[in-house]
Amino acid sequence: MLMRTDPFREFDRIAQQVFAGAQGTWSRPSSMPMDAYRAGDEFVVSFDLPGVDPDAIDLDVERNVLTVRAERRPQDSADGVEFQVAERPSGVFSRQLFLGDTLDTDRISAAYDRGVLTLRIPVAERAKPRKIAIAAAGDDQKVINA
After folding, report:
1. How many helices (H) and strands (E) does the chain have?
2. Do 97 and 45 touch, CB atoms closer than 8 A?
3. Interatomic CA distance for residues 88 and 90, integer angstroms
4. What pLDDT is stored for residue 133 in this prediction?
5. What residues contact 54, with CB distance under 8 A and at least 6 apart?
6. Exposed e or buried b per residue across 79-111, where buried means at least 16 C-beta atoms within 10 angstroms of its C-beta
7. Conformational region of residue 56, where left means phi above 0, alpha means psi within -120 to 50, and beta covers everything else
């Protein structure tokens, strides 16, 4: 269903999370945390994007590769304001998922609520279990689960 990514890309993503000191940029975006699970006949993927405006989120699917990009702009500070602590990340965030051929990428739905982007990806009809009739030597037919 969901395919694992290139291990070197995954290592780079983890290293970037651990050693990230700078904001994500369009050429070198930061990663975003996600959960993925199967619920019945669909896969659900949730991304944490607190403080991101829904208009700043971009979703693309090309050749079974789903790309999620988002941008959280830094908070505007008035003149004379001096930050004592600034730990909330800002900049560009991105994540790619390699979707298997068993998922229906034409019917992906997306919803954004309280800082969580949730994608629902249906399992393709051709990937669902089905029964296949087998013709016997006579007129009788047996049904076998496939």
Report:
1. 1, 10
2. yes
3. 7
4. 86
5. 112
6. eeeeeeeeeebbbbbbbebebeeebbbeebeee
7. alpha
Residue corresponding to tokens 């790619």: 96
What's the one-letter identity of residue 138? G
Only one residue has tokens 């070197």, namely 8
Amino acid at 125: E
CA distance 96 to 66: 6
Residue type, 126: R
CA–chain centroid gap for 93, Å, is 12
SS3 130: coil
For the chain, residues with pLDDT lower than 70 are 1-29, 127, 138-146
What whole-number distance in Å separates Cα of residue 115 and Cα of residue 48? 6
The two tokens of residue 105 are: 């990428």
**pLDDT score recorded for residue 67:** 93
Using an 8 Å Cβ cutoff, are 69 and 93 in contact? yes
**pTM recorded for the entire structure:** 0.69
